[in-house]
Amino acid sequence: MAVYHSHHTAVPPPQAHAFRRGIHDQVLGIVMFAASAALWIFPMATHDGAKDAQVNEAVVGTFLMFVVGLRLYRGSSWRSDAIVGLAGVWMIVSPFVLGLQDAAVDSGSTVLDIAVGSVLATASLISLLILRADRRAEAAEAARRP
Predict the structure, then answer these.
(1) How far apart are CA 136 and CA 21, in angstroms?
(2) 114 CB-contact burial (10 Å; exposed 0-12 / middle 13-18 / buried 19+)
(3) Mean residue pLDDT across the chain
């Protein structure tokens, strides 16, 4: 059993792993859930914007609330991060794609979609980076064990 001194690492590896998993699963999961809820609730509550954009927001928001809810309940993997990231990218580009198809898109919906999409894509990227760092730390710890 290894003895960890304060000058070796700031946090012992088992605690660091638990901290990274907590940030990954809980903190970023809550951020993703809040963004998904805003995407789903805000247009319905305000009835602001075009119906085409509202339908897109409602469908994507409902789907994401399900994916992120499962993520919070069961923990997550790179798959849920990838799904959330792709949905975030879709929300960033959807006002422009829908606008090119002569679908009605309101400027308020465009701002909401780009803001929520940016939050989702950024949280997903951070989550993937945390997973990567955790896997590297576990591999390094396994290599140090005799």
Answers:
(1) 13
(2) middle
(3) 79
